[in-house]
Amino acid sequence: MNDRYLYRGLCKESFKLGKKYWVEGGIHFSHGKPYIMVNDLFSRIEVIPETLRQCTGQKDSNDNLIFEGDIVKWGKIGIGTVVWLGFSWLIMHSCGDNNYVTFSSNGINIIGNIHDNPELLEVIY
Question: Per-residue pLDDT for 25 more than 80?
Fold first, then answer.
Protein backbone atom coordinates (compact mmCIF):
# COMPACT_ATOMS: atom_id res chain seq x y z
CA MET A 1 0.00 0.00 0.00
CA ASN A 2 1.21 3.50 -0.82
CA ASP A 3 2.14 5.15 2.50
CA ARG A 4 0.13 8.26 1.55
CA TYR A 5 -3.08 6.21 1.86
CA LEU A 6 -2.16 4.60 5.16
CA TYR A 7 -4.21 5.42 8.26
CA ARG A 8 -3.64 5.01 11.98
CA GLY A 9 -6.20 4.78 14.76
CA LEU A 10 -6.53 3.75 18.38
CA CYS A 11 -8.14 0.31 18.71
CA LYS A 12 -11.52 0.74 20.39
CA GLU A 13 -11.41 -2.61 22.22
CA SER A 14 -7.93 -2.03 23.69
CA PHE A 15 -9.00 1.39 24.95
CA LYS A 16 -11.95 -0.19 26.76
CA LEU A 17 -9.45 -2.45 28.54
CA GLY A 18 -7.37 0.51 29.69
CA LYS A 19 -4.63 0.03 27.11
CA LYS A 20 -3.61 1.99 24.04
CA TYR A 21 -3.03 -0.12 20.95
CA TRP A 22 -2.50 1.71 17.68
CA VAL A 23 -3.24 0.01 14.36
CA GLU A 24 -2.20 1.02 10.86
CA GLY A 25 -3.61 0.06 7.49
CA GLY A 26 -6.26 0.95 4.96
CA ILE A 27 -9.48 2.63 6.03
CA HIS A 28 -12.98 1.20 5.78
CA PHE A 29 -16.32 2.52 7.05
CA SER A 30 -19.22 0.23 7.89
CA HIS A 31 -22.50 1.47 9.35
CA GLY A 32 -20.83 4.79 10.18
CA LYS A 33 -17.99 3.19 12.14
CA PRO A 34 -14.32 3.49 11.08
CA TYR A 35 -12.20 0.37 10.74
CA ILE A 36 -8.54 -0.14 9.90
CA MET A 37 -7.97 -2.99 7.48
CA VAL A 38 -4.99 -4.97 8.77
CA ASN A 39 -2.91 -7.40 6.66
CA ASP A 40 -5.69 -8.29 4.24
CA LEU A 41 -9.20 -7.29 3.29
CA PHE A 42 -10.79 -9.63 5.82
CA SER A 43 -9.06 -8.45 9.01
CA ARG A 44 -10.50 -5.21 10.30
CA ILE A 45 -10.24 -3.48 13.66
CA GLU A 46 -12.67 -0.83 14.85
CA VAL A 47 -10.94 2.38 15.88
CA ILE A 48 -12.00 5.39 17.92
CA PRO A 49 -13.14 7.97 15.30
CA GLU A 50 -11.40 10.94 17.00
CA THR A 51 -8.04 9.15 16.77
CA LEU A 52 -8.20 8.35 13.04
CA ARG A 53 -5.23 10.01 11.31
CA GLN A 54 -3.91 9.89 7.74
CA CYS A 55 -0.27 9.38 6.83
CA THR A 56 1.48 12.26 5.07
CA GLY A 57 3.51 9.86 2.93
CA GLN A 58 6.70 11.37 4.37
CA LYS A 59 9.21 10.04 6.90
CA ASP A 60 11.05 11.84 9.66
CA SER A 61 14.82 11.88 10.20
CA ASN A 62 14.58 8.51 11.96
CA ASP A 63 12.72 6.89 9.03
CA ASN A 64 9.34 6.86 10.88
CA LEU A 65 6.19 7.61 8.89
CA ILE A 66 4.65 10.99 9.77
CA PHE A 67 0.90 11.09 10.45
CA GLU A 68 -1.60 13.88 10.90
CA GLY A 69 -1.65 14.74 14.61
CA ASP A 70 2.01 13.89 15.17
CA ILE A 71 3.92 16.35 17.29
CA VAL A 72 7.23 17.12 15.63
CA LYS A 73 10.40 19.03 16.36
CA TRP A 74 12.33 20.53 13.52
CA GLY A 75 15.67 22.26 13.56
CA LYS A 76 16.04 25.15 15.95
CA ILE A 77 12.65 26.59 15.02
CA GLY A 78 10.60 24.59 17.46
CA ILE A 79 7.78 22.16 18.05
CA GLY A 80 4.54 21.85 16.11
CA THR A 81 1.64 19.62 15.17
CA VAL A 82 1.19 18.12 11.68
CA VAL A 83 -2.19 19.21 10.26
CA TRP A 84 -4.09 19.03 6.96
CA LEU A 85 -5.33 22.48 6.05
CA GLY A 86 -7.65 21.71 3.13
CA PHE A 87 -4.94 21.92 0.49
CA SER A 88 -1.65 20.88 2.03
CA TRP A 89 0.12 19.29 5.00
CA LEU A 90 1.39 22.00 7.33
CA ILE A 91 3.02 22.24 10.73
CA MET A 92 1.02 24.34 13.19
CA HIS A 93 3.19 26.11 15.75
CA SER A 94 3.26 29.26 17.84
CA CYS A 95 6.55 30.81 16.69
CA GLY A 96 6.22 34.41 15.52
CA ASP A 97 3.26 35.92 13.66
CA ASN A 98 2.71 33.09 11.18
CA ASN A 99 1.33 30.04 12.98
CA TYR A 100 1.88 27.62 10.09
CA VAL A 101 4.93 26.50 8.21
CA THR A 102 4.99 24.54 4.97
CA PHE A 103 5.45 20.86 5.63
CA SER A 104 8.78 19.33 4.71
CA SER A 105 10.15 16.19 6.29
CA ASN A 106 13.74 17.48 6.16
CA GLY A 107 15.14 17.72 9.67
CA ILE A 108 11.87 16.71 11.35
CA ASN A 109 11.72 14.32 14.30
CA ILE A 110 8.48 12.91 15.71
CA ILE A 111 8.40 13.44 19.47
CA GLY A 112 4.84 12.27 20.13
CA ASN A 113 1.24 12.71 19.03
CA ILE A 114 -1.78 14.70 20.19
CA HIS A 115 -3.45 11.66 21.80
CA ASP A 116 -0.56 10.05 23.68
CA ASN A 117 1.42 13.18 24.55
CA PRO A 118 -0.93 16.18 24.92
CA GLU A 119 1.41 17.65 27.54
CA LEU A 120 3.88 18.44 24.75
CA LEU A 121 1.34 20.89 23.32
CA GLU A 122 1.27 22.91 26.53
CA VAL A 123 4.72 24.16 25.64
CA ILE A 124 3.62 25.66 22.32
CA TYR A 125 -0.05 26.68 22.70
Answer: yes
Q: Do 46 and 73 share a structural domain? A: no
The pLDDT of residue 1 is 47
Three-class SS string for the chain?
CCHHHCEEEEEHHHHHCCCCCEEEEEEEEECCEEEEECCCCCCEEEECHHHCEEEEEEECCCCCEEECCEEEEECCCEEEEEEECCCCEEEECCCCCCCEEECCCCCEEEEEECCCCHHHHHHCC
The dihedral of CA 107, 110, 111, 117: what is its sign? positive
Reported pTM: 0.83
Domain membership of residue 104 as a residue range: 56-125
Domain count, the chain: 2
Q: What is the CATH number of the domain that holds 124?
A: 2.30.30.290
Please tell me which of 26-30, 38-42, 92-96, 117-121 the model is most confident about, judged by mean pLDDT: 26-30
pLDDT tens string 45-59: 999 999 999 999 889
